[in-house]
Each structure stands twice: as structure tokens, then as C-alpha cells.
Amino acid sequence: MSRKGNCLDNSPMENFFGILKQEIYYGRKFYSYEQLKETIEKYIKYYNEKRIKEKLGYLSPVEFRKKNVA
């Protein structure tokens, strides 16, 4: 990306991090970096493989990609 930064370039990741914080971070205490890291890794796996999204026809991102590749 050679052009000057644009807020729209980063909106998908900002949206993901907002959802992540709402669903696993706020209201919880993490007592170690490892505990936080493991929780985030588990959430990313869940988000990609299990969590359905209305915009993807009520499929998870992995299911949506598999369906549209074939």
C-alpha cells in the first residue's frame, strides 16, 4: 500500500478486533500473557470455523469458502 493511510483500508480488522473484545475480553481478567494468547487463538479458530455470519448466508467463513470453491 503506497498511498496515504485511509481508515477504510483497516475497517475489516477493526471490526474483528471489536467483536473479539466484546466476546472474550471485556469483563474478564487474564493472569498471564499465555492465558490471553491461548484464549485469543481459541477464539480465532472458533470465529473462522464455527461462528456463523448472516452476511455469509448463515455459514462460518470456512464453510462459506468451501461452498464457493467447489
Automatic annotation (TrEMBL):
Domain Integrase catalytic: 1-69
InterPro entries hit by this protein: Integrase_cat-core, RNaseH-like_sf, Transposase_IS3/IS150/IS904
PANTHER family linked to this entry: TRANSPOSASE INSF FOR INSERTION SEQUENCE IS3B-RELATED, TRANSPOSASE INSO FOR INSERTION SEQUENCE ELEMENT IS911B-RELATED
Protein's name in the database: IS3 family transposase
Top-level taxon in the UniProt lineage: Bacteria
Record SUPFAM superfamilies: Ribonuclease H-like
PROSITE patterns recorded: INTEGRASE
Organism field: Anaerococcus faecalis
